[in-house]
Amino acid sequence: MVKARKYVVKKYFEGVPKRDDFEIVEYELPQIKNEEILVKTEWVSVDPYQRAYNRRFPVPYDQFGFQVGIVEDTRNPRFPVGTRVVTHKGWCDYSIVNPNENTVMAKGAYKLPDLKGLSPSLGLSITSMTGATAYFGFLEICQPKAGETVAITGAAGAVGSLVGQIAKIKGCKVIGFAGSDEKVQWLQNTLGFDKAYNYKTVNVHETLKVAAPNGIDCYFDNVGGEISSIIISHMNNFGRVSVCGSISAYNDDVTQLPRVPLLQFDIVSKQLKIQGFLIHFWLDRWHEAFADLTKWLLEGKLQMKEHTTEGFDKIYDAFVGMLAGENTGKAIVKI
Ligand SMILES: NC(=O)C1=CN([C@@H]2O[C@H](COP(=O)(O)OP(=O)(O)OC[C@H]3O[C@@H](n4cnc5c(N)ncnc54)[C@H](OP(=O)(O)O)[C@@H]3O)[C@@H](O)[C@H]2O)C=CC1
Ligand SMILES: C/C=C/C(C)=O
């Protein structure tokens, strides 16, 4: 019998999630059945949707999320012992998975793609939801063309930093907004963004007059709120907006969300396309994103910075730290 630990969400979050909204539960795993695998978790992902989706499930629920682990026992010939897998089993140190049992959000399990000796933790960014989100959310919805100007909020985060690098690969001019001067320096000096700004200290409207005098063609929106309205008011005719997330409001009371300026006149007069998406829509095509992103990574055309916290007991701290902007790049926890 294997003893396992998992984080259970026992209360709905009010504002910033609190430590005692979670309980760490110890329990014994049953024997694996036909087709199942026993996975020892190596890395877990902390992500904004774990906050945003909180009220979609009846409490108590096991905290879902992507993780990379190694197969320790198997009754599935496609997944021998020692295989590295990506699953959606969340914040636990051991789990039993049937790789064939997909959910709406994720495959039951898939083999970690060959990262040519790079850290398997990249299975939580480059070859997981994060990478697919940046790739499809930007390329499919924004349909960027070389020479166009792209604005990105949440630009120094996991998804945003990839979107900016993909935009550079596609020959675009890239303007990023992030929440500290260090992040801004990293975006400009290391990732090659054309311009980056600290949204906490600049006047976004005045900044865009200078940074994008000819307007913005594509906007990848990770944060929502007032900054998004300002950016959209700077868009060119036939501009495209990919609405990926609205993290600026995830900890807010949904009945009291802040008002943002009316955008309809800009949308109509500039004939803008504004599209939200959920990355599960492309679940059967994620491998296409993984192939291109891994190739670009190995060619040195893009990079993924990881913000790593150590220890199963620290997952909560990593989660609220990410929501507060402590991460540059992908926030992950090494178990
Ligand atoms: N539609 C979909 O299918 C998917 C959507 N997403 C969305 O993509 C977005 C980015 O996710 P991900 O890359 O994983 O997370 P990040 O790595 O970007 O981490 C979250 C970041 O959000 C920023 N942030 C926090 N509060 C605010 C605020 N009030 N205003 C502006 N920025 C804030 C912080 O950076 P800073 O220091 O810059 O403030 C923080 O580092 C999220 O909105 C998420 O929900 C992600 C995956 C799939
Ligand atoms: C699947 C993730 C969705 C958001 C909103 O993060």
Structural overview:
This protein is of the alpha/beta class and 335 residues long. The protein is 25% helix and 27% strand. It has nine helices and 16 strands. The chain has helices at residues 49-52, 129-142, 158-169, 181-189, 204-211, 225-232, 264-269, 286-298, 315-323; strands spanning 2-9, 22-29, 37-45, 61-62, 67-74, 84-87, 94-97, 109-111, 149-153, 173-178, 195-198, 216-221, 235-243, 273-276, 306-310, 330-334. Helix 2 (129-142) crosses helix 3 (158-169) and helix 2 (129-142) crosses helix 8. The longest helix has 14 residues, at 129-142. The protein is globular and about 65 Å long. The mean pLDDT is 97. Ligand LGVNKYGP binds at residues 48-49, 52, 245, 278-279.
Break the fold down into its secondary structure elements and pairings:
Blueprint: E1 2-9, E2 22-29, E3 37-45, H1 49-52, E4 61-62, E5 67-74, E6 84-87, E7 94-97, E8 109-111, H2 129-142, E9 149-153, H3 158-169, E10 173-178, H4 181-189, E11 195-198, H5 204-211, E12 216-221, H6 225-232, E13 235-243, H7 264-269, E14 273-276, H8 286-298, E15 306-310, H9 315-323, E16 330-334
Helix pairs in contact: 2-3, 2-8
Mean pLDDT: 97
Give a list of the ligands.
NADPH dihydro-nicotinamide-adenine-dinucleotide phosphate, ligand LGVNKYGP
The CA-CA distance between the termini, in Å, is 20 Å
Output the helix-strand order.
Answer: EEEHEEEEEHEHEHEHEHEHEHEHE
What is the molecular shape?
globular
- Largest sheet, if any? 7 strands, mixed
The CATH topology assignment of the largest domain is Rossmann fold
- The fourth-level CATH homologous superfamily of the largest domain is NAD(P)-binding Rossmann-like Domain
Uncertain residue ranges: none
Return the CATH architecture of the largest domain: 3-Layer(aba) Sandwich
Given this structure, which CATH class of the largest domain is correct? Alpha Beta
Discrete helix count? 9
Number of strands: 16
Helical content, roughly? 10-25%
**CA-atom Rg in angstroms:** 20 Å
Q: Strand content of the residues, in percent?
A: 25-35%
In total, the number of domains comes to 2
Structural class: alpha/beta
Subunit structure: Monomer or homodimer.
Subcellular location: Cytoplasm
GO cellular component, one term: cytoplasm
EC number: 1.3.1.48, 1.3.1.74
